[in-house]
């Protein structure tokens, strides 16, 4: 059970200052607009926080593009909206200066690289499907399926409105082990060397019933060719020690979608 | 659920215990005696020693086992001699028992065994049913079988008096040997022992069944074993069918007995009942196909067996018939099994000798899911036996060499060793330390006197720590009295059982891995789905892992937050403060109405971390009409008022409370909705009113009839009202109708002030502002400006309906049609009266200002605002905010230091941990510490009623006027077994319906009670005139919840009281155990509210209730309804010396007392209140009782007298406060009523509105 409220609270409080700038090429005004600054929660998704950004820049763009979907890039790389903000940041962390400067586009949607996101409902659908996937990995009998619609709603509203208590009142049910010693598998996504994210079935306990740690996860993902010292695992902007138990990590360090998002990079 | 113990035996024959709240096995102090097999029920551990004798270990009892021996001395009156001890031949013995049938000569009454010691000499009891007698204690009657009275009358022909002497079981916390079967203990040793029967239906509470198997294959049943006689009286042989020999057996919690024969088949004892606990006959049961059995284990509803191939099987259908219906299995392979009273199963693994637990055993799935290893480390005792340890080690090694030879010598033992701690090492299992003569394996040697035992290895220390073996102490067999002065072997080794694991003692223990041979769960009370922390590492006990990686993660997270937001304070947040809305469709009855309608309720709150504003709206189903709306800040109490099948909430608001209207009632469609809304409403209303975390030390605690715990915390109110020295409160009274009155909560004494602001009407002839006392006939101050009578301002007083001398100097300085403010300030000698801020005059006191109770405004003044200033915080009873704290209790007691204790329905004591939250708050706001899971048990009753008719006898056909044939105890409501439902889904049934053999008033063998008619009193025997009978059916249920409470020990209590004296660090905590004994808790302080241990305080009479108050006063109430006062309680001797009887008011049985500062308050069994008057430091027992007569409110459920206030709960669940309680008038003047929220208990012991409480007694001059 996720009982360590102090850690959960810290994770929830993770925030990033972002500076949104309109793409220079799209400015349809004499003067370039002022950049727009926002503090965004790490656990949230960009479409949930960019309403104001859109409103701010929409005056400066070509009238034809008024209804266009906005998309963001950092250093020329489009940002995938379906990743939590904290993950997007950590993926590029090595060279970011705060505030994180992101370019806003209304034009030339990169169809190849990004999914369309027309409304908040799209994000909600994505979020809930992630939850269900994580739940299926964690529990033999699925908990999400047995929840009422209002619980789903509460989770979603909790995330959307940045309400820790509201979110965790429901989420703790998902973090229960339900009579077992641990989760069935640890829901995680591992990002390594620009490859699409890695997912494996990894149990939180070893054959002998001992708790597996982060280093054992890396071992099972065959990432230890160069030795442990060559790897760096980042999540929520911090590097969890390699002896952290996986079960505990899954309970406490998962993002709102109930997945652990681990960014693995080589040192040097 | 109190903590309980799991026991285990390792391969060396040592006994270990693992507490359900602990994580490590602790070894029992080693007494040079190994054990081969153990069997346990709570507090009693029976064991088969290495010498093949039976031993008993009684432990974990805070209350000593005591038995009061009684003998009646009988005398008859003769015309010349007066009363004489000469009796008629037809009379009873001179010393007899109560009905005269047994000779009870004092000299012939001895302690039953060496385990007992006399605690006192014979003395005369000087009370009769709570009524005091003369010092010689005689009671008089016409004849012996007649009723005895306390006074002699002309017809008193006989008299008798009662001699009493208490004996005490002195072998607590140590091993006590049970007398062997024969004088020579080795003639027929034992090979198996089993204890059970603790919840046999219909049996007297506390009786136990002990069964044993001898080496001859005979089955023995121990007679008379129970709480008051742990060792029983004697063995009686239970005959077996011809040619059958028993190898092992098991006795379940219900008394069910299965025996395994040497042939590997089963005999089941049938006909076991409370009247016949040893059963009637044996029936055969065949083992699972093709296997031979070795061991059987019985819980409450399950029987598990082990085959000789170590296969475990489960017997199904035992709940309906003792022999069951079929086998299920095999279910894994185990060396030894054990079943707990809750049917949970443990075993010892065959190969690894680890202890396993069967996961997932539930009522519906009694065989569980899988075996899981229990990883609790074993700790061996280092303390106390340090000196003997080296010698012991040496001694073992030499011993094992010699005892190897004894294997061949002794076939008998060899055969039976299967169930014993067999060895993985090459070592004889029955090897015994040499201090026991039989251990050498030679039968002849054992009869030698014990001087032969000289063991070169056993030093002095070792000798002292040896167990008491029957071979040396045949005394218990012969019934001799044990006298520690003369019997050198009766040195009790009292090893105090640690109530909880103290970290400081850790140094005395060292950890080691050990191989287990047997596990015993007979004393484990773990409920289903609620496992102790045995399966995790040590860190999991708190739920937090204080490991380096956790600290590192936390630290780096905190650092990162600082870093990433530093310098960006002015950037706007992406997600701003938003409101949250919650809606549900339900049924509701609006304030003051009982009309239920379908509505939609909506809760809306605004704010991110602190909720600034919240509203609750009742909308029509279409959401287009607002039916009712309130701000959550106006809610004073949110209480669950569910009835089975209808989940309900009541919301009390300022308007409903002050108007004495019924609250807003909401009925939800299900328990889930109720929980959801209860948590949200409570959370939001507490956030809005800033009630969070632990309440201040001066809070009032109360409990509703449903067992929910509430608190009124005056600290937020204080903060709000404090203005300089005074506490100010403003009452808006615009638009009220004059005459208008306002109760002054804190009275109006020197220093207080009041300002009335209002508008003088154009038509005003005169108006008046009065300060009234207890009634309208007494007015302390009457200010009466008159426009129609010479423009004067009359000041006067009214004493008992007679006006005093008018004071009329000065003239009116204000005009009609203007605003005016009248300020009255009470000073030491009189009132200062000001108009519009200008001092007008002074008025000397004519009535003591302490008597002032209310303000009244009459005439042509339209008041708009009243400002009341007091030296104390002003608490208006109707505006008190009651906050639910979490947990389920029936009693709560607190004290001025803020230490709070409670008692749950199963009599478990709990201590408040300082948290706020639990099940009722859902996950919304949990204190990070101190929220523990709580389990409470309750019993539901229904009565089966029958009427007699001449043709068919008793039938369930009543007269049309009779009560329903299935009803509640009053007969007013129809009840039935089928329709009785539990309150919510947090409750579960734990048993089926059974006839309650413990019905008060006594019952016959089928549970019936008889009476002339239903409305009269019932008795256990049918008499000629009895036409009706009834019996009570009971069913147990259990609540699983959580709250900010921690369980205290495993001693059950029924009453508790706390008091902190000024200047003392510790808090006095007194309690009454369920058996009526008094307990004093040692070491309770603000920082250690749980204290350390109970100290038993002897009391002649079993008690019901206790209360301790300031000035070292301790009062108690006996079960007979008389009061007791503790003499000799001082700060240096907090437990006092003796109990002094205080006679109750004539013809009244007191139920509860509460010691206040000025008086002792008592509540009788009828719900009436009495006050003990003239309680002074010189005469602390007071002089007389004064009954409280108030025609409006005369029945109470609870009373709590605190420092200088008295609070009570009326019989209809309304909280009320006694007004005018002072040291001169400790009874007070009248009741002021507050919120009616189904209250049942209140404790205001910590509550004192006085900001500077005076610490000492008030001497009445």
UniProtKB/TrEMBL annotation, chain A:
GO biological process: apoptotic process; autophagosome assembly; autophagy of mitochondrion; cellular response to nitrogen starvation; immune system process; negative regulation of programmed cell death; piecemeal microautophagy of the nucleus
Domain Autophagy protein ATG5 UblA: 11-106
Sequence ranges assigned to domain Autophagy protein ATG5 alpha-helical bundle region in this UniProt record: 121-176
Keyword Protease belongs to the record: no
InterPro entries tied to this protein: Atg5, ATG5_HBR, Atg5_HR, ATG5_UblA, Atg5_UblA_dom_sf, ATG5_UblB
Coiled-coil spans in chain: none
Cell compartment(s), UniProt: Cytoplasm; Preautophagosomal structure membrane
Keywords noted in UniProt: Acetylation, Apoptosis, Autophagy, Cytoplasm, Immunity, Isopeptide bond, Membrane, Ubl conjugation
Pfam families: ATG5_HBR, ATG5_UblA, ATG5_UblB
GO molecular function, one term: Atg8-family ligase activity
Transmembrane helix in keyword set: no
Single GO cellular component term: autophagosome
Domain spans labelled Autophagy protein ATG5 UblB: 185-264
Highest rank taxon of the organism: Eukaryota
Complexes and interactors: Forms a conjugate with ATG12. Part of the minor complex composed of 4 sets of ATG12-ATG5 and ATG16L1 (400 kDa); this complex interacts with ATG3 leading to disruption of ATG7 interaction and promotion of ATG8-like proteins lipidation. Forms an 800-kDa complex composed of ATG12-ATG5 and ATG16L2. The ATG12-ATG5 conjugate interacts with RAB33A; this interaction is bridged by ATG16L1 and promotes ATG12-ATG5-ATG16L1 complex recruitment to phagophores. Interacts with TECPR1; the interaction is direct and does not take place when ATG16L1 is associated with the ATG5-ATG12 conjugate.
Family: Belongs to the ATG5 family.
Function of the protein: May play an important role in the apoptotic process, possibly within the modified cytoskeleton. Its expression is a relatively late event in the apoptotic process, occurring downstream of caspase activity. Plays a crucial role in IFN-gamma-induced autophagic cell death by interacting with FADD.
PANTHER family: AUTOPHAGY PROTEIN 5
Listed name of the protein: Autophagy protein 5
Native organism: Nezara viridula (Southern green stink bug)
Automatic annotation (TrEMBL), chain B:
Keyword match Transcription regulation: no
Any one Gene Ontology cellular component term annotated for this protein: cytoplasm
PROSITE patterns linked to this entry: GALECTIN
Keyword tags: Lectin, Repeat
Alphabetized SUPFAM superfamilies for the sequence: Concanavalin A-like lectins/glucanases, RCC1/BLIP-II
MF terms in GO: carbohydrate binding
UniProt biased composition (Polar residues): 417-452
Keyword Glycosyltransferase: no
Record InterPro entries: Beta-propeller_rpt_TECPR (IPR006624), ConA-like_dom_sf (IPR013320), Galectin_CRD (IPR001079), Peroxin/Ferlin (IPR006614), RCC1/BLIP-II (IPR009091), TECPR1-like_DysF (IPR010482), Tectonin_beta-prop (IPR051513)
Pfam families: Gal-bind_lectin (PF00337), Hyd_WA (PF06462), Pex24p (PF06398), Tectonin (PF19193)
Chain positions covered by the region annotation Disordered: 417-465
Segments forming domain Galectin: 740-869
Similarity comment: family membership: Belongs to the TECPR1 family.
The protein's name: Galectin domain-containing protein
Source organism: Nezara viridula
């Amino acid at each position: 059970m996720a009982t360590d409220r102090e850690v959960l609270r810290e994770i929830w409080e993770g925030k990033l200052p972002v500076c949104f700038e309109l793409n220079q090429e799209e400015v349809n005004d004499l003067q370039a607009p002022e950049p727009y600054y926002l503090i965004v929660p790490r656990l949230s998704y960009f479409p949930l926080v960019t309403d104001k950004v859109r409103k701010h820049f929409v005056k400066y763009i070509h009238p034809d593009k008024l209804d266009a979907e906005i998309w963001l890039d950092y250093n020329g790389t489009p940002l995938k909206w379906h990743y939590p903000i904290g993950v997007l940041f950590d993926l590029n962390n090595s060279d970011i200066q705060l505030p994180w400067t992101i370019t806003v586009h209304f034009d030339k949607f990169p169809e190849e690289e990004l999914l369309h996101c027309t409304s908040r409902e799209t994000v909600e659908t994505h979020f809930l499907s992630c939850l269900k996937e994580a739940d299926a990995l964690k529990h033999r009998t699925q908990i999400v399926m047995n929840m009422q619609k209002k619980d789903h709603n509460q989770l979603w509203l909790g995330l959307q409105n940045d309400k820790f208590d509201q979110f965790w009142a429901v989420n703790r049910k998902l973090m229960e082990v339900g009579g077992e010693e641990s989760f069935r598998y640890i829901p995680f996504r591992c990002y390594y060397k620009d490859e699409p994210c890695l997912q494996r079935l990894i149990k939180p306990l070893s054959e002998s019933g001992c708790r597996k740690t982060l280093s054992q996860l890396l071992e099972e993902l065959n990432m230890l060719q160069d030795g442990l010292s060559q790897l760096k695992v980042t999540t929520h902007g911090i590097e969890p020690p390699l002896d952290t138990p996986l079960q505990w990590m899954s309970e406490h360090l998962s993002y709102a979608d109930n997945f652990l998002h681990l960014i693995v990079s080589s040192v040097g | 659920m109190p903590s309980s113990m799991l026991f285990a035996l390792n391969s060396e024959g040592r006994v270990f215990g693992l507490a359900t709240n602990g994580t490590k096995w602790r070894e029992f102090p080693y007494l040079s005696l190994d054990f081969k097999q153990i069997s346990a029920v709570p507090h009693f551990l029976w064991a088969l020693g290495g010498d093949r004798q039976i031993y008993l270990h009684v432990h974990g009892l805070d209350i000593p086992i005591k038995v009061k021996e009684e003998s009646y001395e009988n005398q008859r009156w003769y015309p010349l001699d007066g009363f004489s001890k000469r009796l008629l031949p037809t009379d009873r013995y001179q010393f007899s028992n109560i009905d005269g049938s047994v000779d009870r000569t004092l000299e012939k009454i001895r302690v039953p065994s060496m385990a007992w010691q006399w605690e006192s000499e014979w003395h005369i009891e000087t009370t009769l049913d709570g009524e005091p007698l003369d010092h010689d204690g005689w009671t008089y009657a016409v004849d012996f079988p007649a009723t005895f009275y306390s006074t002699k009358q002309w017809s008193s022909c006989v008299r008798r008096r009662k001699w009493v002497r208490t004996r005490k079981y002195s072998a607590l916390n140590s091993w006590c040997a049970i007398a062997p079967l024969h004088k020579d203990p080795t003639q027929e040793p034992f090979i198996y022992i089993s204890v059970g029967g603790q919840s046999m239906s219909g049996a007297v509470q506390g009786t136990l069944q002990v069964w044993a198997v001898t080496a001859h294959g005979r089955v023995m049943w121990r007679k008379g074993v129970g709480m008051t006689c742990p060792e029983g009286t004697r063995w009686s042989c239970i005959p077996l069918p011809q040619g059958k020999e028993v190898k092992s057996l098991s006795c379940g919690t219900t008394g069910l007995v299965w025996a395994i024969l040497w042939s590997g088949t089963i005999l089941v004892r049938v006909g076991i009942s409370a009247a016949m606990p040893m059963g009637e006959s044996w029936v055969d049961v065949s083992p699972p196909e093709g296997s031979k059995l070795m061991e059987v284990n019985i819980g409450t509803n399950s029987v598990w067996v082990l085959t000789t191939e170590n296969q475990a099987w489960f017997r199904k259908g035992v709940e309906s018939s003792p022999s069951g219906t079929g086998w299920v299995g095999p279910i894994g392979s185990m060396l030894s099994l054990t079943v707990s009273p809750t049917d949970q199963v443990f075993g010892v693994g065959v190969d690894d000798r680890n202890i396993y637990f069967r996961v997932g055993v539930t009522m519906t799935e009694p065989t569980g899911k899988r075996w899981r290893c229990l990883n609790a480390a074993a700790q061996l005792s280092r303390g106390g036996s340090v000196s003997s340890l080296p010698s012991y080690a040496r001694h073992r090694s030499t011993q094992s060499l010699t005892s190897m030879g004894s294997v061949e010598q002794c076939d008998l033992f060899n055969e039976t060793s299967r169930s014993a701690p067999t060895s993985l090492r090459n070592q004889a299992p029955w090897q015994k330390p040499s201090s026991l003569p039989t251990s050498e394996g030679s039968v002849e040697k054992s009869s030698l006197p014990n001087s032969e035992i000289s063991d070169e290895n056993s030093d002095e220390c070792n000798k002292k720590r040896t167990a008491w073996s029957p071979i040396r102490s045949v005394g218990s067999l012969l019934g001799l009295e044990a006298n520690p002065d003369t019997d050198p072997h009766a040195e009790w080794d009292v090893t105090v059982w640690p109530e909880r694991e103290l970290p400081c003692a850790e140094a005395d223990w060292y950890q080691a891995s050990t191989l287990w041979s047997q596990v015993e769960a007979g004393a484990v009370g773990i409920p289903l789905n609620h496992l102790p922390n045995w399966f995790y590492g040590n860190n999991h006990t708190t739920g937090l892992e204080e490991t380096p990686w956790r600290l590192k993660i936390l630290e780096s997270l905190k650092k990162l937050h600082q870093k990433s937001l530093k310098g960006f304070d002015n950037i706007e947040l992406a997600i701003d403060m938003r409101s949250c809305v919650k809606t549900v469709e339900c049924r509701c009855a609006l304030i003051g109405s009982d009309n239920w309608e379908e509505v939609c309720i909506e809760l809306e709150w605004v704010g991110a971390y602190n909720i600034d504003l919240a509203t609750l709206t009742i909308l029509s189903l279409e959401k287009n009409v607002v039916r009712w709306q309130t701000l959550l800040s106006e809610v004073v109490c949110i209480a669950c008022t569910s009835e089975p099948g209808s989940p309900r909430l009541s919301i009390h608001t300022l308007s409903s409370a002050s108007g004495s209207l019924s609250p807003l009632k909401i009925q939800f469609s299900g328990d889930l909705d109720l929980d959801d809304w209860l948590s949200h409403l409570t959370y939001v209303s507490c956030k809005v009113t800033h009630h969070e975390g632990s309440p201040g030390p001066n809070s009032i605690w109360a409990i509703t009839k449903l067992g929910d715990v509430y608190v009124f915390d005056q600290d937020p109110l204080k903060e709000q009202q404090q203005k300089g020295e005074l506490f100010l409160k403003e009452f808006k009274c615009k638009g009220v109708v004059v005459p208008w009155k306002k109760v002054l909560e804190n009275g109006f004494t020197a220093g207080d002030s009041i300002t009335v602001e209002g508008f003088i009407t154009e038509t005003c002839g005169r108006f008046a502002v009065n300060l009234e006392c207890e009634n309208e006939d007494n007015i302390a101050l009457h200010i009466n400006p008159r426009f129609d009578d010479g423009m004067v301002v009359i000041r006067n007083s009214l004493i008992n309906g007679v006006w005093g001398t008018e004071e009329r100097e000065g003239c009116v300085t204000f005009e009609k049609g203007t605003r005016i403010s009248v300020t009255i300030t009470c000073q030491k000698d009189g009132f200062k009266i000001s108009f519009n801020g200008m001092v007008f005059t002074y008025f000397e006191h004519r009535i003591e200002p302490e008597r002032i109770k209310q303000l009244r405004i009459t005439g042509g003044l339209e008041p708009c605002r009243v400002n009341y200033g007091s030296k104390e915080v002003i608490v208006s009873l109707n505006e008190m905010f009651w906050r639910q704290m979490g947990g389920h209790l029936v009693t709560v007691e607190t004290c001025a230091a803020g230490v709070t204790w409670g008692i749950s329905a199963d009599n478990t004591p709990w201590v408040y941990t300082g948290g706020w939250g639990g099940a009722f708050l859902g996950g919304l706001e949990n204190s990070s510490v101190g929220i523990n899971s709580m389990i409470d048990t309750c019993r539901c009753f229904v009565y089966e009623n029958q009427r007699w008719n001449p043709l068919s006898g008793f039938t369930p056909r009543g007269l049309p006027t009779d009560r329903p044939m299935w009803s509640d105890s009053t007969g007013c409501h129809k009840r039935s077994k089928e329709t009785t439902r539990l309150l919510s889904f947090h409750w579960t049934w734990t048993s089926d319906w059974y006839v309650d053999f413990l019905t008060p008033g006594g019952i016959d063998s089928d549970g019936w009670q008889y009476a002339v008619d239903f409305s009269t009193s019932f008795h256990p025997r049918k008499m000629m005139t009895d036409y009706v009978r009834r019996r009570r059916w009971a069913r147990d249920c259990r609540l699983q919840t959580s709250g900010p409470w921690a369980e205290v020990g495993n001693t059950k209590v029924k009453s508790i009281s706390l008091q902190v004296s000024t200047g003392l660090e510790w808090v006095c905590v007194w309690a009454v155990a369920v058996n009526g004994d008094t307990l004093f808790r040692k070491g309770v302080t603000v920082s250690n509210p749980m204290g350390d241990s109970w100290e038993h305080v002897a009391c002649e009479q079993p008690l019901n209730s206790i209360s301790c108050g300031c000035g070292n006063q301790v009062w108690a109430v006996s079960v007979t309804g008389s009061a007791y006062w503790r003499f000799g309680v001082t700060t240096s001797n907090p437990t006092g010396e003796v109990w002094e009887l205080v006679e109750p008011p004539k013809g009244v049985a007191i139920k509860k007392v509460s010691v206040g500062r000025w008086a002792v308050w008592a509540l009788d069994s009828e719900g009436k209140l009495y006050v003990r008057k003239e309680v002074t430091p010189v005469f602390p027992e007071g002089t007389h009782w004064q009954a409280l007569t108030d025609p409006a409110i005369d029945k109470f459920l609870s009373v709590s007298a605190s420092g200088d206030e008295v609070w009570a709960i009326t019989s209809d669940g309304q909280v009320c406060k006694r007004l005018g309680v002072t040291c001169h008038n400790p009874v007070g003047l009248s009741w002021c009523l507050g919120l009616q929220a189904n209250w049942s208990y209140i404790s205001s012991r910590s509550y004192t509105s006085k900001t500077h409480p005076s610490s000492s007694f008030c001497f009445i001059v």
